[in-house]
Amino acid sequence: MIARCGICKMSSFGELNWNRGLEPNLALMGGAAQQGGVSNSVWFLYLIRCGDGSLYTGIATDVDRRFEEHESQGPKGAKYTRGRLPLELVYRREIGNRSEATKEEMRVKALSRKQKLALIALA
Q: Which residues have C-beta within 8 Å of that of residue 95, sequence separation ≥ 6?
């Protein structure tokens, strides 16, 4: 569960202050693989720009493979990206373990379009 401050909407892991904008969590950006857990996979956060200009956010251990699944318009790609060709991979960042990647994905999905575009511009 993510605790949020009622005034500034800052998550408990401190990446986003809605009043000041985007503040990346450097601990999550380090990309160290999970130690001593079930999986040693390194997870990535990625953003895709769809043909209609919308942005899709996801996580994967192999971003190139996952992007190909989206582009193929097959059953393994997200329903959201189907019919929205052409697709362009505009952002990827190594996160760490799946838990951290999922939290970061939810945080980025909650950003406004303007904030997501600023994140892409920083890459």
A: 28, 29, 31, 42, 43, 44, 45, 59, 101, 104
Pairing of strands 43-49, 88-96: antiparallel
Is the Cα dihedral 26, 29, 33, 37 positive or negative?
Answer: positive
Q: What is the pTM of this model?
A: 0.70
Query: In whole angstroms, how far apart are CA 78 and each of 2, 26, 29, 71?
Result: 25, 29, 25, 10
Ranges in the chain, pLDDT < 50? 1-20, 26-37
Q: Which domains does the chain have, with CATH numbers?
A: 16-122 (3.40.1440)
